[in-house]
Amino acid sequence: MTAPIPRDIPDLPAIPGVPGLLPPPVPASAVMPPVRRPVAATLRLLTALTAAAATTLALLHGSPLPVLSLFSIQSTILLTAVLALSARRSWTARRPLPATLRGATLLYVTIAALTHHLLATSAPPFSGATDPTSWQTTLADHLIHTALPLAALLDWLLLTPPARLHLRRASTWLLYPLAYLAFTITRGELLPANAPDRYLYPFLDIAAHGYKSTLGNALLLGLSCYALAVLLIALDHLRPNPVRPHSKTGFRLQPPVG
Q: Mapping DSSP to helix (H, G, I), strand (E, B) and coil, where does residue 63 land?
């Protein structure tokens, strides 16, 4: 007659010099079932369509090249693409876009909105606009510089999990504004002196302020953008989690046999 098999087998003693065997890490996607978010997908798709319509209005009622050279238009195009991809992933229950990309997009549209309302209020809504007072141009101006940045902020606050941004990304996010500064200065130098919309923003007008004052303005603006990025990351770690955690997993625990 054989001895009964013990129910609890004691752990084997560790062998000196041999690391213990650790269980392989299991990704959350293997445990949590995929969840579709149709409400989030619908809201993001509507915002993306609104951003695309606003960009189209600005292009139809202005010179295409100056309009496309604006920082606000470029950031709105980026917002359109990011929200459209996020809507598709929310609808098909796929992994969301990286938080770094969403945070950078929010930062850029916020910079464009604050710059427009605080520094460029005396300038026309869009450089190169054939009729700056037309209702189409005014509508595009309000959508791009007010409504869409607020919609992007609400999407970030209400539809994304917190604590996904890291401080080391703040300096990386400034590479695009730095590249845009080099682009707009080079563009102004290559255009004729009497060309309209030679400099797209009055505080970056080298012909009016000179290189020293213009670069000083750019430095102050860059420091402000970095402070805004740090504030955005800090808020990401302080805000509550709007996404409900799912208690159910993809595994079913069976009762013990015997």
A: coil
Token reading at 257: 């046999």
Tokens 């319509």 appear where? Answer: 53
pLDDT per residue rounded down to tens, the chain (258 residues):
566 655 655 555 555 655 555 555 555 554 555 688 999 999 999 999 999 999 999 999 888 999 999 999 999 999 999 999 999 999 999 999 999 999 999 999 999 999 999 987 555 556 556 666 788 889 999 999 999 999 999 999 999 999 999 999 999 999 999 999 999 999 999 999 888 888 988 899 999 999 999 999 999 999 999 999 999 999 999 999 987 655 554 444 444 444
Token pair in block for residue 90: 């929310």
Q: Helices marked H in the chain — which ranges? A: 28-31, 38-60, 64-68, 71-91, 99-118, 135-142, 148-159, 169-173, 175-190, 206-238
Provide the 10 A C-beta neighbour count for residue 90: 23
* Phi, psi angles (nearest 5°) of residue 105: -65, -45
State the Cα–Cα distance between residues 132 and 127, nearest whole angstrom. 9
Quick one: which of 188, 190, 176 has its CA closest to 226? 176
* Cα→Cα distances 110→27, 53, 64, 94, Å: 34, 19, 23, 27
Q: Which one-letter DSSP state was computed for residue 78?
A: H
Cβ 125 vs Cβ 138: under 8 Å: yes
Among candidates 106, 112, 127, which has minimal Cα distance to 59? 127
